[in-house]
Amino acid sequence: MKLFLLAIAGLAIATPAAAEVKSASDGGFEVVSVETVKATPAAAYDALRNPGQWWNGEHSYSGDAKNMTIDARAGGCFCERTPGGGTIEHGRIIYAQPGKVLRFVGGLGPLQSEAITATMTWTIEPAPGGAKITQRYVASGYMPGGLKGIAPVVDKVLAEQLGRLKVILDKPAG
C-alpha cells in the first residue's frame, strides 16, 4: 500500500492537470474529467469495460492492469486478481447502459480501507467525429486528515486513466 501511495503522489507531480476538482472538503470531493474520442459511443463503452487494456498497472494492487476486469451489469464487479489467488473488488456496478452510462460504487486505492462511500460514473455521448466521455468520481465519508488533501491526487490519477482510454480509442483501426 505504501508503494501505491508513493506512486500516486509521484503522479500528482508528474502529470499535467487534465481534469478538475469540482469541489473538495474534509468530508468529501468531486472530480470530473472529460475526453472526446475518435470512436462511436458503442466502441467507447466496449473499451471502457476492458480496463486491462487502458488502466495503468502502476495504479493497481497486482502491478498489472491485465488483472483488472469490469463485469458491466448491475451487481457486476470492477475486480482485480492478485498473485497467490487473491482478489480485490474496486467497485460494484450499479448502472450499466451500453453505449451510454457505466456506474459503480467503491472507494479506489487508499480510499478503499477508509470509511468512504464513493461513486464513479462514466457518461458517453455522441460528439462530432466520435464520442464524449465524462468521468465523474464523488467520494464522501471519514478519512484521518480529511479528504480535501487527497482530492487533487485522485483527480490526477483518474484523469490519467481516462487519457489512456482516449489513446486506445483514438488509434487508427488496423
TrEMBL record:
Record keyword Transmembrane present: no
Signal peptide range: 1-19
InterPro entries (UniProt xref): Polyketide_cyclase/dehydratase, START-like_dom_sf
Keyword Signal: yes
Xref: SUPFAM superfamilies: Bet v1-like
Keyword terms, alphabetized: Signal
Protein name: SRPBCC domain-containing protein
Organism the protein comes from: Sphingomonas cavernae
